[in-house]
Amino acid sequence: MTDIATEAFKGQLELAGPGPWLFPSAKKPGEPQTNFKKTWERTLRKAGVPYFRL
């Protein structure tokens, strides 16, 4: 894993908090986030990337 990926992973662990999920749901506490479509689209738009398939 690259240094950048390691730092991103550590940062997400801090954001996620003490629960069991790396990507917890903001809408349903105690459950994982299940859909990244809107987040991915927003990320691409901010980066100026027209399309990038996951």
Output the structural class. mainly alpha
Task: Provide the low-confidence segments as ranges.
Answer: none
Query: What is the strand content?
Result: under 5%
Q: What string gives the helices and strands in order?
A: HH
Distance between the termini: 19 Å
Number of strands: 0
Broad shape: flat
Q: Quickly count the helices.
A: 2
Number of domains: 1
Instruction: Write down the overall mean pLDDT.
Output: 92
Largest sheet: none
Q: What is the helical fraction, as a range of percent?
A: 40-55%
**Radius of gyration computed on alpha carbons:** 13 Å
Describe, in plain words, how this protein is organized in 3D.
By secondary structure, the protein is an all-alpha fold. The protein has one domain. Helices cover 46% and strands 0% of the residues. The protein contains two helices and no strands. The longest helix has 14 residues, at 3-16. The model has no long low-confidence stretch (mean pLDDT 92).
